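Table S2 (text version). Query chain:
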Amino acid sequence: MKRSHSRRDGDDYERHRHHSKERDRDRDRDKDRERNRDCERNRDRYYDERNNKRSTSYKRNHDSEEQSTEVRSYEKQDLKKLRDYGKENRRKSDRYFFTNKEMEKKQETKASNEALERQNRTVELLTSKTGGAYIPPAKLRMMQAEITDKSGAAYQRIAWEALKKSIHGHINKVNISNIGLITRELLKENIVRGRGLLARSIIQAQAASPTFTSVYAALTAIINSKFPNIGELILKRLVIQFKRGFRRNDKPLCISSGTFIAHLVNQRVAHEILALEILTLLVETPTDDSVEVAIAFLKECGMKLTEVSRKGIEAIFEMLRNILHEGQLDKRVQYMIEVMFQIRKDGFKDHEAVPEELDLVEEENQFTHLVTLDEATDSQDILNVFKFDAEYVSNEDKYKQLSKEILGKKVQMKIVVLQ
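Corresponding structure-token output:
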């Protein structure tokens, strides 16, 4: 009896569970149907409203929006989204436009900052006291092109470096055959501003190549005919250099600078009084070295001194004769004195004062400087160093005009025949 009762209870429980599942399924199905019908009604209403709006007008005003209060909230949100698409697109395009403009401004600012930084580095490099490290010519031209302010210190320093390289290059290339061309190239450069550089380059080149002393003297004479202050500067520096070598007993320095002075006497750049002063200084207290330097000096300018100051050259040879008779010097030096007397007897035929191919300046254009040993004290070494010019542009224009006038007159010299 107990078992049958329990089986009946289990069957009732199964039937009850089955009926509850069917009820739940029916209820869910009814809800789905109701939801679908609502969606269809909403969809039909939405498309009806949209078709009506398209047929009437796309323009909506604030009053018509207030009257359609019965439209459901989710429909308003959908329509609002449709209306705002254009605004969002415009907003995005505006945002992209402003972003591009900002990027362009940033790029321009960055480029200007980089250019300014490069210019500052250039200024620091070129305006340092030592002039900085060596700069190749190509990089120097590129740095000069980057600087737009021609009146600034950086541009002037680059122009100074270019002027120094140009002058030094022209001086190293000069010889008898191209002296006319080199002179014209030098006159195109601002040698008034770079007169210290020009004087230093000529003196250094002559000391390195004494055999070309006559060429450098002829070049100095040509420049002296147009810019006498440059010729005087070269002469003073040579005299100071000679006195320095004499005080230090530096025979090679005395011979190189004395030889250059002698050729400047031949070219009528230096006065013969300076030559007589130097010879007197060398032979009044004779030593082996001083007499040897005097003999070398006499060989170079003896012919010219014989022409312009016969009494002076006779006095010098009289002093040499007395030194020879005393016999206190070395045999080699005594032999040099005897050879010098023989050269004088032959009329200095093997030691011509000015070769014909280097006699380039007309006599009326020659400018002779009377510089004595005591007067030559200031070598003006400051001219070798860069100095800022507040009126750089105007001074450069003035020199260009002067250079055109000089070159336009074909530099009234015998040099025209050689070109």
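Notes on Table S2: The chain has a mean pLDDT of 82. The chain has 16 helices and no strands.
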